[in-house]
Design goal:
The chain is an alpha+beta fold. The protein is built from 6 helices and 16 strands. The strands form 2 sheets. It has an 8-stranded mixed sheet with strand order 2-3-4-1-13-16-15-14. The protein has an 8-stranded mixed sheet with strand order 6-7-8-5-9-12-11-10, covered by helices on one side.
Length: 290
């Protein structure tokens, strides 16, 4: 679909300092932006929590032409529970196995140098590392669970305009033509269960398309989690966002592309801001509200 592109996938983290080091020192990502918020997000960006939180964007390059990871940290939340909704983040990168060995992190190794590793801190998301040099962005694919591949295709292809790359009876892989990143859905025969670690796929679209996307999805009988809304980031751009739920209640946030390009610019002070926030963390001053 013209003008649409994947932006990022949202992960929650409980142990901020250790988790950030995993992404930067083991996976080789850079801290691209860091932002602090005093209260809960109106579009539940930080989950169903009404407390102070932070957003740290990490990745291998600008969100203009890379798919990055949004790491959401809720002050006072000590752990998250995984469901079976998120399955894998696939990264094509060399040298990761050696870094895992040096850090003494457990992993499973398969033929061809493919490695599966779980984040060793709550909530334990799983990563697939392909030991090859990527031509462009190393972030290749997110794999999510589906309870019905036909319904998944109806939502993501017909309503959201993604193209099918591959499919069979138990899985489908989709993409937007402008980006090599793919979104894969796998039906392993289990009902899809979400829990407190639930993430979110963010996709950019022209601002003029956001309301029509909301109306199309609503007319098809699917749930709108957050109707079109403006979100402010202190000192930065205000973006338009609508959050949808797919047939298995995976969250997908469509973000106005024009303002998003302004908001997502690399901040050379991001790592410094993050370090300062970690040192000043007073999590015990916040109480869990969910």
């Amino acid at each position: 679909m013209e003008g649409r592109r994947p932006l990022h996938y949202v992960f929650k983290l409980a142990e901020r300092e250790k988790t950030i080091k995993f992404y930067t020192e083991i996976l080789g990502m850079k801290v691209l932006r860091h932002e602090e918020f005093e209260g809960g997000c109106a579009a539940t960006c930080n989950g169903p929590y009404d407390n102070a939180w932070s957003k740290t964007m990490v990745g291998y390059g600008s969100e203009d032409d890379h798919v990055v990871i949004e790491l959401t940290y809720n002050y006072g939340i000590n752990s998250y529970e995984l469901g079976n909704d998120f399955l894998l983040l696939t990264i094509k990168l060399t040298g990761v196995k050696e870094k895992l060995d040096a850090a003494k992190f457990a992993y499973e190794e398969y033929k061809g140098g493919r490695v599966l590793v779980r984040l060793p801190y709550s909530p334990g998301y799983q990563f697939e590392i392909i030991n090859e040099q990527a031509e462009a962005d190393p972030v290749q694919q997110v794999t999510l669970a589906s309870s019905d591949i036909v319904q998944t295709i109806e939502f993501w292809q017909i309503l959201l305009g993604m193209s099918i790359v591959d499919r069979n009876d138990t899985e489908v892989t989709l993409k937007y033509n402008a980006c090599p990143f793919t979104l894969r859905f796998l039906n392993d025969g289990r009902p899809v269960k979400h829990s407190t670690a639930q993430g979110r796929m963010a996709i950019a679209a022209p601002e003029k398309d956001l309301l029509p996307i909301q109306e199309v999805v609503n007319s098809a009988g699917y749930q709108i989690k957050t109707p079109l809304i403006s979100l402010d980031t202190p000192g930065k751009a205000t973006v338009e966002v609508v959050v949808l739920l797919d047939p298995d209640h995976h969250e997908v946030a469509f973000v106005g592309d024009e303002a998003c390009r302004e908001l997502s610019q690399f901040d050379p002070k991001a790592a410094e801001l993050l370090d300062a926030a970690i040192k000043a963390d007073k999590s015990l001053d916040y109480k869990k509200k969910f």
